[in-house]
Amino acid sequence: MQLALFWFLAALAILSALGVIAQRNPIHCLLSLVVTLLTIGVLFIVEGAVVVGFLQIIVYAGAIMVLFLFVIWLLNLPVEIGPTGHLALKFFGSVGAAALAAEILVFVLPPHLQVRLSAPPPGYGSIDSLAQKLFSEYLVAFEVTSVLLLAAVVGAVALARRMPGSGAEVRAAGAQAAPGADQV
Amino acid sequence: MTTDLVIGAVEAIAMILLGLSLCVLVLWFDRKGSALIQDRVGANRASITGIGARLGLPNFGLINTLIADPLKLFTKEDFVPDGADKFLHTLAPFLALFPVMITFVVIPFGDTMTIGGHTFQLQAANLNVGVLYVLATIGIGVYGIALAGWASNNRWSLLGAIRASAQMISYEIAMGLAIIAVVIAYGTLDLQEICRAQGGVWFGWLPRWGIFVQPVGFLLLLTAGLAESKRVPFDLPETESELIQGYFTEYSGGKQAVFMLTDLAEHTMIVMLLVTFFFGGWQVPWLYRDGLHLPGAHAIALNHLVVSVVGILAFLVKVVLLSLFLGTLRWTLPRFRYDQLMRLGWKGLVPLGLANVLATAFVVVVSGGAQ
Predict the structure, then answer these.
(1) What span, in angstroms and rounded, lies between the C-alpha atoms of B195 and B111?
(2) Whole domain around residue B316: which residue ranges?
(3) What predicted TM-score, i.e. pTM, was given to this entire model?
(4) Disulfide: which of B69, B109, B268, B277 matches B22 by Cβ 3.0-4.6 Å?
(5) Which of B88, B159, B169 is facing A66, going by the closest CB pair?
């Protein structure tokens, strides 16, 4: 049951990941990426890492992908036109890429491919064990990461801040004088 | 194992149907309750061959809400506009509704119940990270709305979708902060455990409900939840005077009904979350597993089955009452302006939520552990 679920989710993740690079419309690519990230989240949950799975869904599928959607809308990305070139060139290029991928797989994979599903130790993947690890063993890394994120937030605010006396400031003042003028 | 799975599935379906039924209640309140608030008569025309009127029964607008409205919506022509992305245009309503529907299954509607030697969990999906599940489904809910606006190939739709996604992301943060404070206070991510922790009393009479532990958290979640459900006063994404109907301008018939249902279902879901976090879920004041312990009075012993059923009924009553309260808010407050909405979210609720989290964490650490 669990094995069947794993294969199904794995196949879905790979298919949707292929969809990300194969489709022309950026919004369709983004949706495929959402499906991939969701599937990986569910894979985590099926394997017992429930907290990591849900965090994956909340952070990546829920938050970051919505930001991507905004970026695509704001940049107004056009539908991509396929690569130009001779058909034979495309064909041999694909064959070469596939051969390279197969070569890497042969090196990376262990001699006999097998999926092992051993029962995880008790408490594995629970929020208690995760918090224990995070706030004891990896405390320094955790805190340093949070400082890094804080620096990023401060940087973003500094970049987005309107300088006094610039044109943007005047526009904002004008918008405030006429209520409703600055609505989206 | 199989029995538990079947029971879980039955409970999940029951919970989703309950959520949908409550949507109808909210819709009826929007018809008839709004009339009461605004001193109008309200819907009173639709009837089935005038049977009710002939019997001398007052017309409460029920035929209108239950039969006429759905019939009208589902028999209208279902069109896809020119130049729209047909696949996404069709998919979007269901992408919006699905995450809300699956949220209902983690809400506990009672403690365990033992019938004939078998113990039932009165919660369809007993997740020990139920809070994370709720946050995940709320986060996924943005896509249906964003894609509906984009796929319609209409400027008003797109503007509505941008407004809706910006609003939902902004208020998700305030919502998450409110929920984090509750989680710190109770020390668990399990919704059932949060409900159980709200049993018992302080000073011999005051029920230990979350609203007394986290009053600020309640106001935060109430406000952010209202904004999340995109209904008045936070219905900026679908303001009819500026954007026709916002992100679902280009929808008609059944799909439009699905979008309206999504708003109502989000309303119901927020109400259920509020009841779970702040009003003790299925807890009845002074009622314990062995009977009623009124303050300053003798205990009245009650059957276990009676206590369980009373718990389920208490959950229902709380949800209905709070739902009507939110409906009243909806018909009382005027709509915000968009800049006011953003200011309230980012400069009001988020700092307040952060302060609430800090204060809660401080109290929990000083008093030595979650209560």
Answers:
(1) 9
(2) 79-366
(3) 0.82
(4) B268
(5) B169
Burial code of B152-188, b = ≥16 C-beta within 10 A, e = fewer? Answer: bbbebbbbbbbbbbbbbbbbbbbbbbbbbbbbbbbeb
Pick the CATH number of A2-137 from 3.30.70.1450, 2.40.10.240, 1.10.8.60, 1.20.120.1200: 1.20.120.1200
- Phi, psi values for residue A109, rounded to 5°: -70, 145
Residues of B in contact with A27 (CB under 8 A): 85, 88, 147, 150
Report cis status (omega within 30 of 0) of the bond before A26. Answer: no
Q: Looking at the domain assignment, is residue B27 inside a domain?
A: no
Averages of pLDDT over each 10 residues, chain B, 371 residues: 79 88 87 85 76 74 80 85 84 90 88 76 80 89 87 85 86 90 87 85 78 88 88 79 81 86 90 90 78 72 79 89 89 85 89 92 80 52
Could you tell me if residue B120 is inside a domain?
yes
Q: Residues of B at the A interface (Cβ-Cβ below 8 Å)?
A: 85, 88, 127-129, 132-133, 135-136, 138-140, 142-143, 146-147, 150, 158-159, 162-163, 165-166, 169, 189, 242, 337-339
> Whose structure tokens read 């991507």?
A68
Asked if ipTM goes beyond 0.85, one says no
Question: For chain A, what are the domain ranges?
Answer: 2-137, 138-184
Interface test mutation site (partner B, options A33, A65, A184, max chain B beta carbons within 10 A): A184
CB contact under 8 A, B146 and A66: yes
Cα separation, B224 vs B335, whole angstroms: 15
Minimum distance, in Å, between the CA of residue B180 and any CA atom of chain A: 14
Provide the token pair at A87: 């058909």
Number of domains comprising chain B: 1
**In chain B, beta strands by DSSP E:** 113-115, 118-120, 201-202, 206-207, 287-288, 291-293, 299-301
Q: Is A58 on the interface with B (CB under 8 A)?
A: yes
- Asked if A180 lies within 8 A of B337 by C-beta distance, the reply is yes
A58:B159 CB<8 A: no
Structural domain includes residue B351: yes
